């Protein structure tokens, strides 16, 4: 310990007698006695130091000592509620002896007073470091303990003279802590209720010391969608249904599924769908710990909001260190679709049909921060026979550092099979309820219903994959940060649909977006067929890359299908599809 003050009266309690101590309660005050006896004020020293973590000038050393006292006071379990500690040390004290002044044995001991304002409790610790006196050195009875006015109790032990040479060797005696020379007493047991305002202030003071971290983490969190409609369409967010059912506000709150750090942003909306921006406890907040870190999140994000906003009027303290977002800088995802007998809508909105058979690159960013691949299979007609048209049957995707997610149709073509990093999660998907989520390395997988999942990656890309009519459909969400950095069958993401048909290759030139299906197939689509070394797909026993590498396949093209349709077939197709060419093609090839 270090001390900043020397106590001028080195005699301290030693000049008071036992009778006064015993009658302390009658006199109206609490008495503390680490060692009640006579000492010689001509030798030794008495020091004291106060550590107060509620003061702005408190340093790391002070807080470490208060933390240590807190752990001791609460039986080894820190609850971070002790905020004020006073340490008094009697160093090398000699006994007061009227007949002998040559005694060279000394006592060194400490009294530690720790105050817990959240429970209105005061703990006293006696620490006997080096006790050299014998009982025969003193003229009166000695005592340790305390007399408390508030609790109307007295815990004092008279050190009997019959103990002779061991009576004052408290450093060798087993204390009530189970350790030699260590005693602890709760001299002010406090109240049953908690002081929530003090809890809020203590938490706030602690969080202010790491505001630089809070600001740093905020840089990596997304801005809140400006209304609930946008939030529902953005796969980067997930709904926190507990907030809806467990509060009186009936608000709808969301938070980021996956983040680049431990923190995330919460956004809350009123029943009308507007973003709540009032700092009264109803609005969202920055989560220092993601809800998936349930224990830390509850301790440092959830409980403090209750202390500061719901149980007291200290919301301004809470939002100072857990700021909310007010739709600052929010940008929605750009969407692309793959559906039907593969019809593709690129991230820039260009639509075309590609009926390749095999495994293809759909999206690949410049530095492979994100990759999405798709596998196609032949379509079955109404009689169950294979046709020359194809549909998507599987997707595989990953971020640079994430687990790989593989989703495919089941053998019945009516369900989904899920594999994450070569581990099968199909049973989880089948048994999970809607909105159940699985968190993996840098990717989150959420079941939205019995035939659909959402996959969200740390990069911000999101996939909504579903099975309908014996085919897989996917909606791709791409963040603005990847504009100008994508290629593949989903096109070049740059708000210019005219260059989306860009084949691979350093000096490649995009095809005209008026190219025929045959040209798109041969000069664009087939060139995005993946190589074995690049495959992200999971292959079941008996399967391999070669199983799906059908390089000799030639599909039926729309222009050929339309030319070969009979008038009655065309009439029936138009009755079902109107003038939608993609629908007419699907109807003509599959009969459904």
TrEMBL record:
Domain AMOP: 192-322
Subcellular location: Membrane
Domain spans labelled VWFD: 334-536
Main location: membrane
Coiled coil: none
PROSITE patterns, per database record: AMOP, VWFD
Matching Pfam families: C8-3_MUC4, NIDO, VWD
Descriptive protein name: VWFD domain-containing protein
Lineage summary: Eukaryota, Metazoa, Spiralia, Lophotrochozoa, Annelida
């Amino acid at each position: 310990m270090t001390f900043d003050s020397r106590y001028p009266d080195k005699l301290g309690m030693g000049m008071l007698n036992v009778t006064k101590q015993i009658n302390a309660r009658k006199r109206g005050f609490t008495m503390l006695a680490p060692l009640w006896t006579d000492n010689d004020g001509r030798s030794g020293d008495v020091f004291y130091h106060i550590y107060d973590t509620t003061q702005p000038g408190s340093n790391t050393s002070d807080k470490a000592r208060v933390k240590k006292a807190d752990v001791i006071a609460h039986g080894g379990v820190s609850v971070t509620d002790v905020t004020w500690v006073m340490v008094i040390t009697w160093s090398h004290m000699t006994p007061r002896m009227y007949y002998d002044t040559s005694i060279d044995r000394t006592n060194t001991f400490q009294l530690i007073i720790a105050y817990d304002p959240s429970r209105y409790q005061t703990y006293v610790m006696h620490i006997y470091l080096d006790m050299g006196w014998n009982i025969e050195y003193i003229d009166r009875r000695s005592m340790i303990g305390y007399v408390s006015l508030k609790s109307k109790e007295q815990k004092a032990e008279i050190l009997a003279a019959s103990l002779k040479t061991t009576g004052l060797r408290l450093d060798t005696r087993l204390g009530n802590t189970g350790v030699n020379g260590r005693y602890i007493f709760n001299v002010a047991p406090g109240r049953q209720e908690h002081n929530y305002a003090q809890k809020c202030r203590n938490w706030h003071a602690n969080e202010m010391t790491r505001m630089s971290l809070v600001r740093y983490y905020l840089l990596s969190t997304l801005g809140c969608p400006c209304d609930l409609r946008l939030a529902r369409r953005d796969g980067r967010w997930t709904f926190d249904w507990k907030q809806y059912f467990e509060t009186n506000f009936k608000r709808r709150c969301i938070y980021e599924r996956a983040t680049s750090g431990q923190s995330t942003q919460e956004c809350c909306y009123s029943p009308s769908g507007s973003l709540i921006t009032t700092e009264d406890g109803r609005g969202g907040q920055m989560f220092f710990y993601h809800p998936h870190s349930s224990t830390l999140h509850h301790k440092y994000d959830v409980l403090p909001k209750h202390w500061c906003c719901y149980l007291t009027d200290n919301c301004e303290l809470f939002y100072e260190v857990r700021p909310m977002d007010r739709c600052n800088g929010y940008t929605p995802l750009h969407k692309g679709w793959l559906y039907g007998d593969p019809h593709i809508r690129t991230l820039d909105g260009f639509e075309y049909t590609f009926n390749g058979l095999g495994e293809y690159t759909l999206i690949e960013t410049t530095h492979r921060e994100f990759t999405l691949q798709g596998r196609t299979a032949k379509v079955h007609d109404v009689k169950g026979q294979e046709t020359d048209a194809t549909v998507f049957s599987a997707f595989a995707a990953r971020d640079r550092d994430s687990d790989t997610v593989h989703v495919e149709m089941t053998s019945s073509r009516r369900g989904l099979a899920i594999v994450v990093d070569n581990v099968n999660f199909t049973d989880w998907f089948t048994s999970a309820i809607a909105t159940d989520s699985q968190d993996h390395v840098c990717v989150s997988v959420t079941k939205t219903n019995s035939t659909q999942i959402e996959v969200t990656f740390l990069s911000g890309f999101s996939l909504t994959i579903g099975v309908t009519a014996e085919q897989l459909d996917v909606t791709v969400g791409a963040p603005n940060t990847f504009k100008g950095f994508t290629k593949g069958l989903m096109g070049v993401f740059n708000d210019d649909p005219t260059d989306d048909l860009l084949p691979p290759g350093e000096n490649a030139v995009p095809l005209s977006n008026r190219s025929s299906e045959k040209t798109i197939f041969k000069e664009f689509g087939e060139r995005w067929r993946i190589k074995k070394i690049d495959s992200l797909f999971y292959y079941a026993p008996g399967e391999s890359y070669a199983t799906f590498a059908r390089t000799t396949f030639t599909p039926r093209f729309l222009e050929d299908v339309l030319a070969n349709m009979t008038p009655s077939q065309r009439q029936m197709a138009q009755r079902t599809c109107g003038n939608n060419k993609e629908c007419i093609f699907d109807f003509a090839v599959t009969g459904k």
